[in-house]
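In response to reviewer comment 3 from the previous cycle, which asked for concrete evidence that the modeling workflow produces usable outputs, we include below a single protein chain processed end to end. The sequence was submitted unchanged, and the resulting structure tokens are shown without manual editing.
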Amino acid sequence: MISTKALPKTKLMQLKIMYWGCGEAGKTTNFERLQEIFAPYKISHGFSIATTDERTLWNDSVHFKFSLASFNLDVIVNVATTTGQERFLSTREYVLQNADGVIFVADSSLDKMDNNLRSFEELKSFIHRDNIPILIQLNKRDLPDVVKEDRFRRIMRLPLAHKDALGFRIVYPAVAIDRSELRNVKRIFIDMIQKILRQKLI
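The workflow returned the following structure tokens.
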């Protein structure tokens, strides 16, 4: 019989991933889809505080737990969204505190580009550590008036390369509202966890 004393103890790490973006870009929809995709890993019921017209008033929050056997590690991931409404600027800054990574959700509509850029510049002004990973989800690709990805990169002043130095995509096209098109909703979330763990473990 193997003594349990000889087995290494499983370590625990807690991460916080924020979903950020302008109002009605799809942050709460992403939050809902993640709860569907990763339902077996949820360790909290999650909560949302919304206005009477179903817009996020404070934030949405839920916790998942993943086990990484190769690292003998359990990872608890707190996923939170911020309200995109401009009058809640101080709320966004508060909720962003202690974030390990940020997924910026952009609206693909051409008439939302100014809002996207303003929200992205605001995010960068709040991040005091340059090494906080940011990945960008270009949401609502099913709309008729969507911006082309290359033009979106120029507007947002992003690198024109499709991948960063670590090999991760920079922009992830998505249709978060469509349950049959959840590949990149899942992919960007997994990639963000991997980017954070690379910083912390390697």
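Helices lie at 27-37, 89-96, 113-126, 149-155, 183-201. We consider this sufficient to address the reviewer's concern, and the full set will be provided in the supplementary archive.
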